[in-house]
Amino acid sequence: MARRRSDADLPVPGGTVTAPHLLNLVGHTPVLFVDTPLPYPHDGFWAKVECLSPGGMKARAAVSMLTGARSRGELRPGAPVVESTSGTLGVGLAFAGQALGHPVVLVVDGELEPSMRALLRAYGARLEVVDRPHPVGGWQQARLDRLAEVRAGLPGSYWPDQYHNPDNAAGYTGLADEIAGQVDAVDVLVCSVGTGGHSAGLARALRRYWPALRLVGVDTVGSTIFGQPARTRLMRGLGSSIHPRNVDYRAFDEVHWVGPAEAVESCRRLATGSFVTGGWSTGAVARVAAWTARTRPGARVLTVFPDGPHRYLDSIFDDGYCTRHGLLGPTRGHPVEIHHPQAVEVTRWSRCRVVVDPVGPVGPGGAPHTGPAAQGTEPATPHTGAAGGARVPAWN
Ligand SMILES: Cc1ncc(COP(=O)(O)O)c(C=O)c1O
Q: According to the UniProt record, where is the region Disordered (predicted)?
């Protein structure tokens, strides 16, 4: 591999391939036109197939967070990177760590699939496995607590803090540029929301091309992000039990909460009808994108499939698992409409055309973020308030 002199020579993910470097593997993913019924026929939507990039979609965020920290001197050459993850960002960080020369320590939990643990270790990451959830904040808070302990024993380590780090969202500018070169126009962008990174970064960058773009957020039932009460969640990747500051509430025109049975049905139909499929978030966004294409004829709808199916072979694609969790029954082809995100607790696919920041204006443009810029501080405490924040105008 050719030697480079400084970070200024690093390739930009998705940019023109100019020199041999691991980072050149990121991006350049295809878009696929999906018209498989999900479960009803629809006019079709575009899917950006991010599983064909090493590390999936989150490699873009990982590279952006590490290069951003290096440029500010927060991450010194060769220093360890420590992060809490439910899996996908872990692969992205393992990749970015190798590409940039940093050891990676990942705090994961007992729910992480054994295949994923093996993969992360194979890529050279050290795993710290949390074996019981926090009584209030669940697995996510338990991981953040362990992360603080690990960092205390690793002086000079860097914590990307994917939930609150603006470099996460900024990492998706290249994704937007790729899309703009692949499709004529996008009217509606459908994004899963976990840390909020790709919905915020992609919508911001795509609106430079198409200012009237509508953004539809897709969360899971039991997730607090858009104001619902926290419940145990089967679905991983999208959804959260905290309120990540990367979620750009003002950017959204509507939100959907999808349940696991609905995601399973979509993943399985995608696999047999379009070959390209993925995990919980892929099933959820595909469901909502198909419904949007069906109910808004003529709209050009695009979504992002964040990862592929392999880590879900023992869950989404396993009949025993799905039967045990009651996920194989028939599902409805349309969402329940609710008038406010906090009006009722949703238990199956639901839609709301009002988007509210449940903890007030702490997202981009709000209070200063306390993530990576405040390295050395405790992990952010989950917000548990449910008071209504800014009401965001909705479309029809
Ligand atoms: C598989 C998968 N899908 C979707 C998401 C949500 O993306 P974001 O964190 O950019 O909101 C994540 C986040 O970790 C993920 O791992």
A: 360-396
Helix (H, G, I), strand (E, B) or coil at 207: helix
Going by C-alpha positions, the residue among 95, 119, 123, 89 that lies closest to residue 23 is 95
Q: Express each pLDDT in 255-312 by its tens digit.
A: 999 999 999 999 999 999 999 999 999 999 999 999 999 999 999 999 999 999 999 9
The torsion of the CA quartet 174, 178, 179, 181, rounded to 10 degrees, works out to: 140
What is the separation of C-alpha 48 from the centre of its chain, rounded to a whole number of angstroms?
14
State which ligand 1 atom lies nearest to the alpha carbon of 279.
1
Backbone angles phi, psi at 191, to 5 degrees: -130, 135
Q: How far apart are CA 91 and CA 309, in angstroms?
A: 14
Compute the mean pLDDT over every residue in the chain, rounded to the nearest whole number.
88
E strand spans, the chain: 31-34, 45-49, 81-84, 104-109, 126-130, 188-192, 214-220, 254-258, 301-305, 336-338, 350-352, 355-356, 391-392
The confidence band for 221, taking pLDDT boundaries of 50, 70 and 90, is very high
Distance CA 314, CA 265 (A): 15
At residue 325, what is the residue type?
H
AA identity, residue 280: W
The Å distance, Cα 5 to ligand 1 centre, comes to 33
Alpha carbon of 219 to ligand 1 centroid (Å) = 10
Rounded distance, CA 353 to CA 182, Å? Answer: 29
For residue 178 the two structure tokens come to 């790729």
Ligand 1 pocket, residue 235 CB under 6 Å = no
Strand ranges in 70-187 using DSSP code E only, listed in sequence order: 81-84, 104-109, 126-130
**Residues 158, 163, 374: CA angle, nearest 5 degrees:** 45
What pTM did the predictor assign? 0.88
Q: Is residue 84 lining ligand 1, measured as CB closer than 6 Å? A: no
CB-CB contact of 356 with 389 (8 Å) = yes
Q: Which residues contact 76 (CB under 8 A, 6 or more apart)?
A: 156
> For residues 58 and 90, what is the distance between their CA atoms, to the nearest angstrom?
8
Torsion angles phi and psi, residue 219, rounded to 5: -115, 180
The half-sphere exposure of 168 on its side-chain side, counting CA atoms within 13 A, is 29
